[in-house]
Amino acid sequence: DPSMPPSGVSCSGCGAELQCRDGAAPGFVPAEKYRSLSEGSDGAAGLRAAVCQRCWLLAHHGQALGLRLPPEQHRQVVSTALRQPLRHGRGPLLLYILDLLELPDPVLPQLPALLSPDVPAAGVLVVGNKVDLLPADGPGHLGRLRERVTAACAQAGLRGAPLVDVRLVSAKTGFGLEGLISRLQRSWKCAGDVYLLGATNSGKSTLFNILLRSDYCKSRAPDIVDRATVSPWPGTTLNLLKFPIINPTCDRIFRRQQRLKEEATKTEDELSIEEKKYLNHLKKQGYLVGEVGRTFQRQKSNPEIDFDPDLLSYSMDEDPRHSPKKCEEKEEFTYNEVKDARWCFDTPGIIKENCVLNLLTEKEVKVVLPTQAIIPRTFILKPGMVLFLAALGRVDYLEGKKPAWFSVVASNLLPVHISTLSNADAIYEKHAGRELLKVPMGGEERMKEFPPLVPQDITLKGIGTTEAVTDIKLSSAGWVAVTAHAEEELLLRAYTPQGTALVVRDPPLLPYISTIRGARIAGTAAYRTKKPPSLVENLKTMGRR
Predict the structure, then answer these.
(1) What percent of the chain has pLDDT above 70?
(2) b vs e for 230-258, b when ≥16 Cβ sit within 10 Å of the residue's Cβ?
(3) How many whole angstroms separate alpha carbon 49 and alpha carbon 18?
(4) Residues 12, 14, 19, 21: what is their CA dihedral angle, to the nearest 10 degrees?
(5) Helix, strand or coil for residue 206?
(6) Tally: H helices and E strands in the chain
(7) CA proximity to 64, closest of 76, 74, 52
(8) SS3 474
(9) At 36, which helix (H) or strand (E)?
(10) 343 and 193 in contact (C-beta within 8 Å)?
């Protein structure tokens, strides 16, 4: 309904302004639903608990609506927010969320350009997310990962005073998050605002939701601030979302430390049935698991139902004109609660350029992006053999004197196919777009619009049979770690879709990844897969792990 004015109310899931004027623009709510919420007795307040149609479909059906929203608009929202005049006498702390699977991060070097020289950031704390998805390839693997992130920061121009710290976490399983919160409260305290920044799909909104229900947030805020919409679809957050940061007084820090000490004395066997069930669920999701608790919780005089705000918005099944339900009255912050508040902001993800995800449908994205612990797949190839990672990447072993090991680190749902060099082109022509190579999906019609694979030659020299010499990163589809005999020279040819980035990552992210394997499968180039055990943080080592 183009005649209806914009609401001035933000979607609680993505931050876009709710409207019913344009179905292809951010914040769209169907006109009938929009009117029923905005023209009731509560006026615009009826929209405050609602989410837009896009967030509703993402949350409940995993469907992503296409939007006429150029990538530059996401960047503009972030840049404008960071160039606001100084609040509380100092610039904000930037919490940069970096997807460990995407190293080297393509957006990190762009960070200085987003800032204004007149409003300098007080510092940058880099958070390496999704550490739970990566298997431990040997003792000290977390230290090596942290070194890789620190090196990437230095390469991007972040070093010394601007770089406050580097932390490794999993926003999904909770690993490392209590330590991150303690670090923020100990060093940053409540000195100024905090902005969560990062590329699309880095996990910013997931981290925002965890922090919203942690000791980092004011105790009453979770009852007032709705969670951000989380989805594998790139660019879910469209505008700023925020919650007020709690002031970490000495008393609060002491009470928090007491809680953490008490929880650390538990063994897994001492957990309740529900806690064990949830812990086992997280173990299936990732290799590293933690828990984020709350020390400061608001006491409620009356029992309240924990409702999902998504259910109060658009529904394809309900008729709002005859609905007997009335939206619950939404709480608001008092003036005193927010007059001097420092805020934690979730910002739109910055679109990664030259990324294969930009070429994929939402169904294909769900297959490509790993959501559970990655199980490495290792193959031993001779010269003249080819490895396909779905139809999104290909590595040819052209020249070498001895066999070499190729370890694939990618979503467990992406197929790997081994072929000979003489048959490779025919296999791609026949099976790209079909079940054998799986992604892209849609047969010949889909492949007509999909860009061709383009090659890049790579020369390597092996350093030993247990340590990879380099990673060949096939855009965001995953990577292949190459392990070869010491001093053995290899000539490889790697392919990715035209317009996407192929990166030769040296040193490799998981140098000993080829050792995580079972016995050789007779008559094939493959080894049996092997999944390392999960590690639970903040539980005593006695008892089951």
Answers:
(1) 77
(2) bbbbbbbbbbbbbbbbbebeeebbeebee
(3) 11
(4) -160
(5) helix
(6) 13, 18
(7) 52
(8) strand
(9) helix 31-38
(10) yes
Q: How many CB atoms lie within 10 A of CB 540?
A: 13
Q: Which residues contact 115 (CB under 8 A, 6 or more apart)?
A: 82, 83, 121
Average pLDDT of span 4-11: 76
- pLDDT band of residue 4 (cuts 50, 70, 90) is confident
CB atoms within 10 A of CB 274: 8
If one compares 492 and 275, the residue with the highest pLDDT of the two is 492
Residue of 176, 124, 175 whose CA lies nearest to 154 = 124
pLDDT digits (tens, 9 = 90+) for 93-134: 889 999 999 999 888 888 877 776 666 667 889 999 999 999
Cβ atoms within 10 Å, residue 9: 19
pTM for this predicted structure: 0.80
Torsion sign (Cα): 248, 252, 258, 263: negative
Q: Which of 108-117, 299-308, 401-410 has the highest mean pLDDT?
A: 401-410
Count the Cβ atoms, other than its own, within 10 Å of residue 259.
15
* Residues in a beta bridge with 195: 94, 345
Give the C-alpha separation, 471 to 84, whole Å.
Answer: 40
Per-residue b or e along 124-139, where b marks 16 or more CB atoms closer than 10 Å to that residue's CB:
bbbbbbbbbbbbbbee
Q: What is the dihedral of CA 411, 414, 420, 421, to 10 degrees?
A: -80
Q: Residue 308 has which token pair?
A: 């999902």
What is the residue extent of each domain of the chain? 1-67, 71-264+335-353, 358-536
CATH class of 71-264+335-353: alpha beta
CB 268 within 8 A of CB 536: yes
For tokens 């096939």, name the residue.
474
